[in-house]
Amino acid sequence: METEPSLAEEELDMTSMHRDSKLASQIWEGKPEAIREVRRSYEADPEGQFVPWVSTLYSFRSISACAQELTMLIPRMVAWVGDEELAKMDHLDPLGRADQFDVISTVLVWAAERASSEHEKSRLMERAYDAVGHGLYLVPKQALLLHTRPLLFLTRVQTSLWSDLKDEARATLRLVSTLVPHVADPNQKVRIYRKLGLLELKTGNLRGLKHLFQSLFVKDVAAAIHRKTLFFWKW
Question: 29, 38 in Cβ contact below 8 A?
Fold first, then answer.
């Protein structure tokens, strides 16, 4: 079993998912010891800590045990997107809820891309699409400096490409390119530039290389995070 996360790992909303800044930093830096601490919180509060646990497992998905456990939680994530689960999130502020939809939609797309049948892939992509819609509805219009909206849009691009809506995907990518310069969190800015660049390349637009380079010039970011851009083909 691998003991270190792949350079291709994509971190989720660490700042909002984990209030402990030290823990969030450990996850961003790919330190597996963070898994134990998040697991303890999840086991103490399985409902309230479900999404932070999903986020952590996804960040360390190159570790086979984490990927397997994450896969086992997919049915619960599918159910989570439903109205019954939304009612349980009323204690969160709208942005906190939107962040959670970002996490769940991202992981559902990851699972869809690994589905064993077209039927299962369609089911997961449709649920991811629903989650993105819920998240975008909840993001405050004035949240220009936050990462949540562009990340949700990037997941929408993935569902659009799956539906062969290439023009819609390209338009959304252009929109994200106007949002990312305003993102305040440097770690999230790198993540958005990297994913934006890779999706641009997937649509055949060489502008994606520009965005990958832009991610390398974001300041105040750990070297481990920049290495993920340098090894982007493993993503």
Answer: no
Closest residue by Cα to residue 191 from 23, 13, 22 = 13
| Spatial distance between the Cα atoms of 44 and 17, rounded to a whole number of angstroms | 16
pTM of the model: 0.86
Asked if residues 73 and 103 have their Cβ atoms less than 8 Å apart, the reply is no
- Tell how far CA 162 is from the center of its chain: 17
Which of the four pLDDT bands, split at 50, 70 and 90, describes residue 42? very high
Q: What is residue 235's predicted lDDT score, i.e. its pLDDT?
A: 46
Q: Given CA atoms 178, 203, 160, 113 in this order, what sign does their dihedral have?
A: negative
Taking the C-alpha atoms of residue 211 and residue 9, their distance in angstroms, rounded to an integer, is 18
Instruction: Tell me what the mean pLDDT of segment 82-89 comes to.
Output: 64
How many CB atoms are closer than 10 A to CB 120? 14
Looking at per-residue confidence, does 82 or 130 come out higher? 130
Task: Give the CA diameter of the chain.
Answer: 47
Query: What are the pLDDT digits (tens) for 155-184?
Result: 999 999 999 999 999 999 999 999 999 999
Q: 155, 109 in Cβ contact below 8 A?
A: yes
Local structure of residue 206 (DSSP, 8 states): T
Rounded Cα–Cα distance for residues 53 and 40 (Å):
10
- Tokens encoding 27: 């996850």
Closest C-alpha among 177, 178, 183 to residue 203: 177
DSSP characters over 102-129: HHHHHHHHHHHTT-SSHHHHHHHHHHHH
Q: Return the closest-CA partner of residue 179 out of 188, 209, 221.
A: 188
